[in-house]
Design a protein that fits this description.
By secondary structure, this protein is mainly α. It has helices spanning 2-32, 39-66, 68-75, 77-80, 84-109, 117-138. The chain has one domain. The two termini are 19 Å apart.
Length: 150
């Protein structure tokens, strides 16, 4: 079960990252091109947050039930904090990604609270941009592009 969950978590990370990039770039483009906020812009935000929510669910399954890394860290959490790899997966990765998810949800929800397209794009650009930055810092870049394959 660990391998399947990790594989899905890894595949969807690329989907989520691409969707957040597209949502961010679309919002920035909308600001500079003075575009109207459309249903497509709203859906980009929605799909970005859905993909991140799926990531959160898969990540929690790994964290709590399946990952041998977190199981190892939980046997002696204090000692695990002294080992960079264990600390990253037991603490830093989840915390940073949770912040990214919060920013993405704000990027999706806050544009609904203003009336002008410019304000909608600005809110989306700020919060999806912040989500993107946190995703970059929280992703395990040392992992295989597609673990378990080849």
């Amino acid at each position: 079960m660990y391998d399947v969950t990790l594989f899905l978590h890894n595949i969807i990370r690329w989907v989520a990252l691409i969707l957040v990039i597209i949502a961010t770039v679309s919002a920035i483009y909308g600001i500079f091109r003075k575009r109207d906020w459309t249903e497509t812009n709203r859906k980009l935000g929605l799909y970005s947050t859905i993909s991140l929510d799926i990531q959160l669910l898969l990540g929690l399954l790994l964290y709590v039930f399946f990952s041998p890394i977190t199981k190892s860290a939980f046997t002696d959490f204090g000692a695990a904090m002294g080992i960079a790899d264990l600390r990253f997966y037991a603490l830093e990765h989840g915390f940073i990604m949770l912040i990214a998810i919060v920013f993405a949800h704000l990027g999706s929800a806050l544009p609904k609270r203003v009336d002008t397209s410019d304000a909608k794009f600005k809110r989306a650009a700020i919060f999806f941009g912040l989500a993107f930055i946190f995703l970059l810092f929280g992703m395990p870049w040392d992992r295989a592009f597609f673990p378990g394959l080849g």
